[in-house]
Amino acid sequence: MKARPGQLTGAVKTTTGRPVAGARVNIFGFTKAGTEFRTTARTGNDGVYAVTLPAGGLYRVSNAFAPLKTAQGVVDHRLHPLERNFEVLSSNTSGLVRNFELRLSGLKPAETNASGNPRDPVSYYGQIIRVLLTGDGPTTDQQSTVLTFRLMPVGRLADGSEGRTLTLRRTVKHLRTEEGLGFDLDKTQLLHDVPLGVYSVTATVSRSAGAAQGILLSLDGSARRPAVTVNFRPSESTPGTSIFNVHAHLEGAAAAAPQSQRPTPAMSPTPAPTLTPEPSSVIRGHINAPNAYPGNVLLVLEDYAITPEDALLEVRFRSLDGAPDLVVRRTLRQIRAGNVGDNSRPLTETGYLPLLNPGAFLVSAALVSAHGEGRTVDLRPDGVAAGREVPLRWAPAERYGVGGGKVVYVTINRTP
Questions:
Q1: Where is the composition biased (Low complexity) (predicted)?
Q2: Is the pLDDT of residue 396 over 60?
Q3: How many CB atoms neighbour CB 372 within 10 A?
Q4: Domain 283-412 belongs to what topology?
Q5: Which range scores top for mean pLDDT: 72-81, 131-140, 260-269, 361-370?
Q6: What are residue 76's DSSP bridge partners?
Q7: Is 396 helix (H, G, I), strand (E, B) or coil?
Q8: Strand partners for 59
Q9: Residue 142 neighbours by CB distance under 10 Å
Q10: pTM score, whole prediction
Q11: CATH annotation of 7-102
Q12: Contact 112, 120 (CB under 8 A)
């Protein structure tokens, strides 16, 4: 596809290559005269959109959505950008192509502004089910009691594709943990990244010994049954769907059907890092169960020597895959906000660094503000020796899955 001079165009397709009609692409910017400019382009039956922009201005694609019809109404589903750079400089001599893909699951890229800083917290294209647990009394072993949820598609998914049965597991401890900054979503009450569709949901419980037992589920806490239907509803306030609540009732668990399974092994918590005592002249950062979201890097201040919290740390990701290098800046105060679980800040003001394209990098960091100037910085990714420049790699299979987040400990030395 080629754009005419001054034109922004592109195609919207599903992951199987089918065109998506009726998708809208929102463009925002300023004309050459400084006037604010907004417009929306829509795709035709061929999945292609096109819009001519006033010459000489600076514009960007702010977001793009596809209307997906469900039994509960039309859901505005965010589209995945296939190009990294959203900035558009319109001229009379060239145009620009920006393509999008309809994805029902997987990690969303962090949208960035002109400075390269992430605009929104990283999340998933899939939907969210919140499990509300009842009947887990004080005698329940919260760590070794595991609930297994099976989500079986009813009909096709919202994009017309065939779904597959999802099997998701949580311990009782996980199901009693509300989501929050710094939590691994796989260790909370959320079943996340569920492709948009209708599902029949069943569940079993496995304790430290014995066969799996079926448990009853409900949608409102009262009408209990072996299976419930999850049918996501469009959100009334934002694009996407509302979180769907399912109640799981442990009391009165019955022996499961003949296909009883061996108990699921107990899920061990992530061990806290071992801390070595340091002289009193060193301030140690607060560490609160560091877990990075898939496709993200979480900076954790391990040690920093009497350095003001408004000191600015610049982190450089030098790609080994031929992708563009990335530079991200955070103050020490912002990094600590993520370490102590400060929910009042957006992720862009914490130690979370969303990466658009996780891969293989050499990572280094330096203090670039007057505060702390001259101090050296060592980085230590989990499982890697500390150094001034350290390797950070994502295997293709782990980039957006469990364990796809990387924790990097930061030490600011007392002397250069």
A1: 254-265
A2: yes
A3: 21
A4: Immunoglobulin-like (2.60.40)
A5: 72-81
A6: 67
A7: helix
A8: 29, 88
A9: 14
A10: 0.58
A11: 2.60.40.1120
A12: no
